[in-house]
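User: I'm writing a short methods note and want a consistent example. For Phage capsid protein, I'll paste the sequence; you return only the structure tokens, no commentary, since I'll be parsing the reply automatically.
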Amino acid sequence: MLKGLSITPPVIGRISIGRVVEKNGKRLPQKDDQFTVTTQIQNRDGWLLHPLNETLRKAATGKLRAIPVRFLFADPDLSLRAEYSCFDRETGRPVCVGNGETCRRVGDTGIEELPCPSPDGCTFGQGGACKPYGRLNVLISDEDELGSFIFRTTSYNSIRTLAARLHYFAAVSGNLLACLPLELKLRGKSTTQSYRSPIYYVDLGVRAGSSLEAAITEARELDARRRAAGFDQTALDAAARAGFANGAFEDSIEDGAAVADEFYPAQSGDDRGHGDGNAHAAAGQTPTASSLKDRLDQRAALLGGKAA
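Assistant:
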């Protein structure tokens, strides 16, 4: 295994509740009130829709506000990873990631481990440059039992709610989180910070038409079948835990560029499509109007020059 490279769950698609639009030469996040399931391919018009997006919409009575899911891991902290994060918008690299106690920050001499006072008390992340940033991996279809869809968010509401639900479901099921039939749910609420307009966040619950008792019964039956087949959930969790620990930062340069474009826009904007709060340039960088495509083209040209 390559040291310094975080080994993350294989991703075959994305889940979002917003998108990036271009206005006056700037790419800004735009809120939405429903889920969208996309592939990992992006063109000028945005992310291409995944075939499951249409399938799920046909099964919904209205807007897509619930997605049936299962989880890869029994440990809630493997399915949802959340830290305070700063990204360099020019390169897409994470430059500082912390948990409120300690952080890993890129410095002149490499990666340093420093105290993390959280965004409100950190001079490095002042002005909204540092935010909570969460990644949730879920299974939607049975076609690829180890291929997950990822939901990224900088919403306190989504991160806090999902973390609580994951730990609660793991506890009440006797550590059978990976076997529970659950669903992601989109909820709305108004706050004084949102000026009474609705903001949307992601919650987790049992599937519509079912109950917690029925879900636990189904989870026990699935766990028994898996054990009989030789499925080793403990070993899978251990492999994932070791993979995450192998690198200093979870997001790669390629993923980081898209994350910075969507969640850390060049200019403060309404980012309530992904939760709450405003988006700002990361790491004290001077905002630029360059698009993700422009930066990728520049990077490709640079790599081409090096190869020559």
